[in-house]
Structures are given as structure tokens and as C-alpha cells.
Write a structure and sequence with these properties.
Distance between the termini: 55 Å
Low-confidence stretches: 563-573
Strand order of the largest sheet: 5-4-15-14-13-6-7
Largest sheet: 7 strands, mixed
Number of helices: 22
Structural class: alpha/beta
Number of domains: 3
CATH architecture of the largest domain: 3-Layer(aba) Sandwich
């Protein structure tokens, strides 16, 4: 894996949702080195152990380098023809809901965009879902219920500006080490900063905590519902903020007051003295950030957990200001990008809603699409159940390994084995999912990919190629677009580059957007290849015409930006 000349390329780490910038260099002799990008605002040069070892992971061992049909090497033409004809025939015989895409937070935004466009706008089904469903969908639902959109309010700098950081269901020290490092560095400068860890286990992250609440499993709703009641009883509410920016507060506070302190203690497994210490600290500290991750999201009550956390911040006005806010930290490098393009079965492009006829019409007009999906598709678990019972007859899996990662993995594997037609796009020649594919399509890997990703703080960064693509591997967006062309949708999928796709993605975000939709990157709707190549990291919203209420801030929900929107949703234990 060599290129012609030594160079250093600005790109992003492919591991977690922190979205660290890295500088990758390939020497003339082919040696690869990777270091943190000191100018990237996510990490300022810091890297964790995995990011630091990226260069050691790059080789061709085990790579899928050529298309295969039933394990036989073939050319792209034959493989793509088979995929397109089989999907088309399945749709003709059984309808558009008989096919599905299962995608991944490892895809770049441009890959995701093309896959979502093909399925929802041209096949006419919403049967596209992602492995991000298993981790961040609770936050998406919680954000939409509270804010009216899937908007993360704050930025990483708020972690350094806060006087209190509450970590809930997050082992930040292991799972997002660079953010942990940023908090540790901030505490060295400001020792008065406090950290509370809420986790049934004592993890490495407890080392930085002033208080560890070893909560009972699934006790988070009760804990934060109790906090809301405590805030109300102790006159710690921001009544002016509540009146100006929320709805439903009286119902929420009434529900929260149903349990007394002893009831909260019983529901959380915590002592009453522990609860009072935490509640008192939260009450007394105006600049508070609550960070939550998979320990909150991966739960049958995940959305309620998210909303009880958000409720406490809305009720105190601790949102949209420096050093404040509820903060969902994502797991995969592009879980956020997938959400932006509509890569969930219940969403449309640019955070628009599939259940909303006005939104469907808008996206259909923009795409000039023949058959926009009219209802939510099958979510991840439902999708594989539909494969098992024969409703899904053609399945395309991209950049993920559901046989290993889905719940009830044996049943998922049995479903895939029995599916009449399975396509897998992957970088590896043999995974527990790839082995069952009728068609295997070689995808470009990190270092070969070119596109963009969005991290947990709404920051869009370029992921640039610095290696030649080996064998006959191709970008995921190219593979999808070629299939779309063969299915008869060539005019809509004539993109020549990732830059073309990003420009279209930006344009749809701004299309008929009068400010009601937070996700707006219209400033980049006319981006050309040269500008895209040099694109610096930026946070959305980034509209074509910024104003005090739209764009130009690290905080998406400042008071200027949320007048008349949002609502406190009551979730009782």
C-alpha cells in the first residue's frame, strides 16, 4: 500500500464519536505514521491508545479485494448487474417493502446519503436502518420529544467550562478517552470543578469523580425524576425560562412529585443521604453539563431516561449557555452523520420526518423522486424478524456485522442464511455475516475512503484518503449509485464524487428551510471539489445566511435560537 510521494493528510479517526482529527503520513518507502492533529477542535492533538495505533492496523490481511458471487471471484459488471436485477425483480414481484438495507455508523455521510436516497426516494420503502439504532436511537427520540428536532445542544468546550459534570451511563475514561483527558486537564486548571459518576459499576472513570453513585440497574428515570421534584421543592427552577421556552412543565413536575425521597431511594438503590448530596450539588451549581452514553441509551426505557435528564436542564435554564446542557456522546464515528441524512427507518433526509406529509413532499420535490416512502420502515430488530419470516426477500448489509452485533445473534444468523438474496459490502473477506452473502462487494477502508463524518458535538469534518484503494475495492457511495443506475435511476445518481454528494446533502438541508429545521448546512450547498478538499471542521447549523438565531455558535439551543420552541416532556418512574 504505497503512494507516489510522502505527504501528510488531515483526516479523522475512525473509532468513536469524539471525532478526533489525525494527521496521516505515508513516507516514500510506504511507511505510515499517524499523529493527533493539533489544530482540530475536537482533540487539539490528543489521541487515545487506539487512535495512536491506527498506523499499525493498516494492511491487506483478510481484505475483500474483488467482487464475489457465491464465493467465486467476478467483475464489477456481473456483480452489480445481479444485485440490481435481483432487487428490481423482488420489488416487481413482492413490492418495495420486500427489500431492505442494513447500514452502519461506519459509513461516511456521503455513503449514507446515497443509500437513504435510493431506498426512500426511488425504491419507495423506508426499510433502511442502521446499527446506530442499537445505541443512539433513544437520544434521537428524546431530542425530538424535547426540542422538536434531533439537536445536540452543546459542545465539547462546555465540558471545560462547567463547574459540575454529571456522567450517566458513561465510562468516559475507556470509551471516549480524549474527552476524559479534556475534563482531567480542565480540573487541573480549576480544581473546584466537580464530577459525579452515576454507574452501577465502579469503572476507571470513577477515578476522576468526586462522587460515585452506584445506582441500581435501570434506576436513572427515578433518579432524575426525583431531581426534578427536588428542584421544584427547593425553589431552584428558572420560571422565566420555563415560561418562555417550554411547554408541559406543570404536568412534568406533578408526575415527578409522585414519589417521595424514600421511594426514589428504593427505586434507585441509593441511600437518601446520597440522593440529597447529589441533588444539593446539582441545585447549587448553575454551570452543569450532564453527559450520557450507552448506559442510558441501551435500555427499554432509554428515551424516558434521556427526557428526564433533559427535563432537569430545561427546568433550570441550564441549556444553550457556556458550561451547561445535556450532552449525548455517540459511540460510532458517524452515527450523527447517519442521523442527518435520514439513515434511520423513521426519518427522512436532513432531519425531516417521514410521518409529516409536508416533509415527504419537500424531499420528493427536491429529489424529483418517483415514489417517496410514506411510512416508517422496519427498525433493526424488526428488520431481521422480517427476514426470518420471509417478508424481506432481498437484503443488503453495508459496513456492519449483524451476526455478531445484533441481539439474539443465532436467530439473526439463521434469518440471513435463509434469506433468498443477501448482499454484503465490507472491507473484510470473511466475517460471520460475509460468509452468508450471495454477493460480496469489496468496499474501501479507512485511509482509502473520502468523505465526511459528524461527531458528537455536531462538528462535520472531512475524512480524507491517503492511500490508494487496493484491488478492485470501491467507495460505498459509488457501489450504491451504480446499482441505482442499473435499476433505472441514473439521472438522480450521476454523482461524480463525494463532493457532489455533500453539496446535494447541504442543499436539501437548506431547501424550503425558513429556520424551523435546525439542521441546515446551506452555506456549503454550492461547494465545489476544490473547496470540499480543503473543507475545515465546522459545526451546524451553518445556513447560507447566518443570523443571531441561526448559525455561528457552538451552542445550538441558545435562548436566541429557541424562542417559542421545545417542551418539557414528563416521564414518571
Amino acid at each position: 500500500m504505497k503512494i507516489d510521494e510522502a505527504r501528510e493528510v488531515r483526516t479523522t479517526c475512525p473509532y468513536c464519536g469524539v471525532g478526533c482529527g489525525v494527521l496521516a503520513k505515508v513516507a516514500a518507502d510506504g511507511e505510515i505514521t499517524v499523529r493527533g492533529d493539533p489544530d482540530h477542535p475536537a482533540n487539539f492533538g490528543r489521541l487515545c491508545s487506539k487512535g495512536s495505533a491506527l498506523a499499525e492496523t493498516i494492511d491487506l490481511d483478510g481484505r475483500l479485494l474483488y467482487p464475489e458471487i457465491h464465493g467465486r471471484r467476478t467483475g464489477w459488471d456481473e456483480a452489480l448487474d445481479l444485485v440490481a436485477s435481483t432487487f428490481s425483480q423482488t420489488i416487481a414481484e413482492h413490492g418495495p417493502d420486500a427489500v431492505a438495507f442494513y447500514v452502519s455508523g461506519q459509513l461516511l455521510t456521503e455513503d449514507y446519503y446515497v443509500a437513504n436516497k435510493l431506498m426512500k426516494g426511488f425504491i419507495g420503502s423506508a426499510n433502511i436502518d442502521t446499527n446506530s439504532r442499537l445505541c443512539m436511537a433513544s437520544s434521537v427520540a428524546g431530542h425530538r420529544r424535547a426540542f422538536g428536532s434531533d439537536t445536540v445542544p452543546g459542545s465539547y468546550e462546555d465540558l471545560e467550562l462547567a463547574d459540575l459534570i454529571v456522567l450517566v451511563g458513561s465510562n468516559l475514561g475507556w470509551c471516549h478517552p480524549v474527552l476524559y483527558q479534556r475534563i482531567a486537564a480542565a480540573r487541573e486548571k480549576r480544581p473546584e470543578m466537580k464530577v459525579v459518576l452515576i454507574d452501577p459499576r465502579r469503572t476507571m472513570t470513577a477515578d476522576i469523580a468526586d462522587m460515585h453513585l452506584a445506582i441500581a440497574a435501570d434506576g436513572d428515570v427515578a433518579l432524575f425524576t426525583g431531581l426534578l421534584a427536588y428542584l421544584g421543592k427547593n425553589d431552584a427552577l428558572d420560571r422565566a425560562y420555563i415560561a418562555a421556552h417550554t411547554t408541559g412543565f406543570e404536568g412534568a413536575i406533578a408526575a415527578a412529585s409522585a414519589l417521595d425521597l424514600s421511594g426514589i431511594a428504593a427505586a434507585t438503590g441509593l441511600g437518601e443521604d446520597e440522593l440529597v448530596r447529589f441533588y444539593s450539588l446539582f441545585t447549587a451549581t448553575a454551570k452543569t453539563v450532564t453527559v450520557y452514553s450507552q448506559g442510558v441509551n441501551q435500555s427499554c426505557s432509554g428515551t424516558d431516561k434521556v427526557n428526564t435528564i433533559i427535563n432537569c436542564h430545561l427546568a433550570t435554564g441550564r441549556i444553550g449557555k457556556p458550561g451547561t446542557g445535556p450532552f449525548s456522546v455517540t459511540g460510532q464515528p458517524n452515527a450523527m452523520g447517519g442521523r442527518e441524512v435520514g439513515g434511520l427507518a423513521n426519518m427522512l433526509a436532513a432531519h425531516m420526518e417521514i410521518e409529516n406529509p409536508e416533509h415527504r413532499g419537500r424531499v420528493q420535490r427536491f429529489w424529483s423522486a418517483p415514489a417517496i416512502a410514506k411510512k416508517p420502515g422496519l427498525k433493526a430488530v424488526e428488520m431481521f424478524q422480517a427476514v426470518a419470516d420471509g417478508r424481506i426477500r432481498a437484503l443488503w448489509i453495508m459496513a456492519t456485522n449483524p451476526v455478531d452485533s445484533m441481539p439474539d445473534a443465532d436467530a439473526v444468523e439463521a434469518a440471513i442464511k435463509a434469506c433468498p438474496f443477501v448482499v454484503v459490502s465490507d472491507v473484510l473477506a470473511m466475517t460471520d455475516t460475509v460468509r452468508h452473502a450471495h454477493v460480496r462487494l469489496p468496499a474501501a477502508a479507512w485511509g482509502e475512503k473520502d468523505g465526511s463524518v459528524t461527531n458528537s458535538e455536531r462538528r462535520i469534518s472531512r475524512q480524507r484518503a491517503f492511500l490508494a484503494t487496493p484491488g478492485e475495492a470501491r467507495a460505498d457511495w459509488w457501489i450504491i449509485a451504480e446499482v441505482a443506475k442499473l435499476m433505472g435511476f441514473g439521472e438522480a445518481f450521476s454523482h461524480a464524487s463525494a463532493a457532489d454528494i455533500f453539496a446535494e446533502h447541504a442543499a436539501v438541508s437548506a431547501f424550503e428551510n425558513d429556520g424551523a429545521r435546525d439542521f441546515d448546512i446551506g452555506a456549503y450547498a454550492g461547494v465545489d471539489a476544490e473547496t470540499y478538499e480543503e473543507l475545515a471542521p465546522f459545526q451546524w447549523p451553518a445556513p447560507a445566511s447566518p443570523s443571531p438565531s441561526r448559525g455561528g455558535s457552538a451552542r445550538a439551543l441558545s435562548e436566541a435560537k429557541q424562542a417559542g420552541r421545545g417542551g418539557v416532556g414528563g416521564a414518571s418512574p
